[in-house]
Automatic annotation (TrEMBL):
<dbReference type="InterPro" id="IPR050509">
    <property type="entry name" value="CoA-transferase_III"/>
</dbReference>
<dbReference type="InterPro" id="IPR023606">
    <property type="entry name" value="CoA-Trfase_III_dom_1_sf"/>
</dbReference>
<protein>
    <submittedName>
        <fullName>L-carnitine dehydratase/bile acid-inducible protein F</fullName>
    </submittedName>
</protein>
<dbReference type="GO" id="GO:0003824">
    <property type="term" value="F:catalytic activity"/>
</dbReference>
<dbReference type="InterPro" id="IPR003673">
    <property type="entry name" value="CoA-Trfase_fam_III"/>
</dbReference>
<dbReference type="Pfam" id="PF02515">
    <property type="entry name" value="CoA_transf_3"/>
</dbReference>
Length: 212
């Protein structure tokens, strides 16, 4: 429910001609495309960066992968916990806890941190397009976010996360496709800018592939 909040979730099979046509119509009308496929995946389907730019010249095109865009590991699959293991973050956790096994962070920090960077890249791209009329390309990776965390150094005194309590959750009961749920409250509240979303959480493939 947290991941799909405010999103209409549709599916397209880009190996089917009619669905390729629909994808191209959607792409032509898109402001931002964010994709997390392995390098070359869209190229093999006929949608490399040059082709995407032809379909949508002003597109803000943002791509994410696991291990970076150069080097021998660029095509490897991966996700947050694997990158924590291979980057040394989990080893730092082992040292901190004084145990003999890798200990990843208690949160998916690389996913969340990279998500903020993706959002910042999208905003920057939209500003650039407004000023110049052109699109923009950005490439991010979970491994680069891990490296940035290392470069930032330790955060000082280590503190344990407090156990979850009822105050962490919204008092409103929300109806979702997975049953009734209470959403985590936002960590920050901005005056005169309440959080809102156009639709509730939805299951994958539940919406039609259309802008409206």
């Amino acid at each position: 429910p947290e991941v799909t909040l405010g999103k209409r979730c549709a599916r397209l099979d880009l190996k089917v001609l009619e669905e390729r046509d629909r994808f191209e119509v959607l792409l032509a009308g898109a402001d931002v495309l964010v994709h997390g496929y392995r390098p070359g995946a869209l190229d093999r389907l006929g949608y490399d960066e040059a082709r995407r730019r032809v379909i949508s010249p002003g597109l803000v095109d943002i791509s994410l992968n696991a291990y970076g865009w150069t080097g021998p590991w660029t095509g490897r699959r991966g996700f947050d916990s694997l990158i924590q293991m291979s980057s040394g973050i989990a080893d730092a956790g082992r040292n901190w806890k004084g145990v003999d096994r890798p200990v990843p962070l208690p949160v998916q920090a690389l996913d969340h941190g990279t998500g903020y960077l993706l959002a910042a890249a999208a905003v920057r791209g939209l500003v650039n397009r407004r000023l110049t009329g052109g699109g923009m390309t950005a490439q991010l990776s979970l491994a680069r976010t891990a490296a940035m965390l290392w470069e930032a150094g330790g955060g000082g005194e280590q503190t344990l996360l407090t156990p979850r309590c009822d105050a962490d959750l919204s008092p409103t009961l929300e109806v979702t496709p997975w049953g009734n749920a209470r959403r985590l409250s936002p960590p920050v509240v901005v005056a005169h800018a309440p959080m809102f979303w156009p639709c509730g959480a939805s299951s994958l493939g539940s919406a039609r592939a259309a802008w409206k």
